Amino acid sequence: MIRVLLVDDQRLLRSGFRALLDLEDDIEVVAEAGDGAEGLALAREHLPDIALIDIRMPVVDGIEATRRIAADPALAGVHVVILTNYGFDEYVFEALRAGAAGFLVKDIVPEDFLHAVRVAARGDALLAPSITRKLINRYVTQPPHTGSGTGLKELTNREREAVALVAQGLSNDQIADSMVISPLTAKTHVNRAMAKLHARDRAQLVVMAYESGLVTPRSG
C-alpha cells in the first residue's frame, strides 16, 4: 500500500486529488495539510511513502518543507513530489536541489498523476529527458560549485558512467543498454552511487552530476 500525504493550501485541489487517489486499491491518503509547517508535523506522525507538496504555500513553502524533510533522518523514506501550477521554473529547480523526487503540474491528467505517484513510490525520479535538458540549460552559464565534485572520487568508473547517464534522463533499462550490462547491474551501479553521494533519489543525483561537473552542457 502506497501511503500519501497531501499538502496544499487550496482545499478544493486537495479534495480532488484525494478523491482520485481514494479510488485506487494500492494507494491510501493518510493525511492532509494546508501549509508546509502542518505538513511537516503530519509527515513525522504518519511517515508516508509520498508527500505531494504544493510549491507555494503560507507559513512554510514547499521548498523549505522539502528541505526539512530531506534533512530529517526519520523521514528518509518519504519521497517528496512538488505540485506546481507553472511547470518547470526556478522554484521547481530549487525544490529538486532541496531533495524533491520530481514535480507534477496540477492540471496533469488523472492517469498520468496516478502513474507518477507509483513511480515516485518506487524511488524513481519524475524527470523526463525534456526536464533534464532544462537542468542542462540552467548550468550553461554557471561553473561547477567549488568542492562539489569531492564525493565523485569515491565512485568507480562504472558508477560514474551510470550517474552521467542518469543525468541525461535515461532509465535503468536504457542505462543497461548503453553500458551493455543487465538492468539489475545498472540499478546496482545507480544505487551504490546514490549511497556514496548521499543522494536521496535519482533527481538529486541529476542535480549533483551537473553541480560537480561530471556532466556538462556540452557532454549532456
UniProtKB/TrEMBL annotation:
The modification 4-aspartylphosphate is found at residue 54. Keywords: DNA-binding, Phosphoprotein, Transcription, Transcription regulation. It comes from the Bacteria. Pfam families: GerE (PF00196), Response_reg (PF00072). This is Response regulator transcription factor. The keyword Membrane does not apply. Residues 148-213 form the HTH luxR-type domain. Residues 3-121 form the Response regulatory domain. PROSITE patterns: HTH_LUXR_2 (PS50043), RESPONSE_REGULATORY (PS50110). The keyword rRNA processing does not apply.
